[in-house]
């Protein structure tokens, strides 16, 4: 009897995430490490529904990690214009996706650049970050309130910046009080109980 090899079938949620180009590998940083770009606004959370965690894990395993290979890498997460109802998968899915990475891949991750975090995100991670994520990930988090600070680590030509991030950066230059939560942005922060998948209420961290 001739044995058969099981095919690694690509599911509909995986295809949806891949086509969104929310998570891609883009060039290298100034130290030669691979750059994994995550554009929050592109993430098809509404379309994925409860399948976001499944899609994230599979996309990292089948697409991102093979492209990164054995290199050290950094993550650039662009939080610009993210909204819980449309394009945020929930912190539970993000945490599960990170925890499913092989130990060697976690070790090769050198930094996570969080672009346009806002005061709500900073407060949230300062309060709950160490409980939600391992210290190995939490200590690699670097806030980038403007794109110009990112260019100290990555050459402009190495990273394709989406229009949503450019627009948000321009808006922050015109309305700098948004950084401190004094002037509200057009969209609220996603870091509340529903998006976090935990029973703790964080609605006080949402913008008015």
Automatic annotation (TrEMBL):
Domain CRAL-TRIO, first and last residues per copy: 9-170
InterPro entries for this protein: CRAL-TRIO_dom, CRAL-TRIO_dom_sf
Domain of life: Eukaryota
Segments forming a coiled coil: none
Pfam families: CRAL_TRIO_2 (PF13716)
Name of the protein described by the UniProt record: CRAL-TRIO domain-containing protein
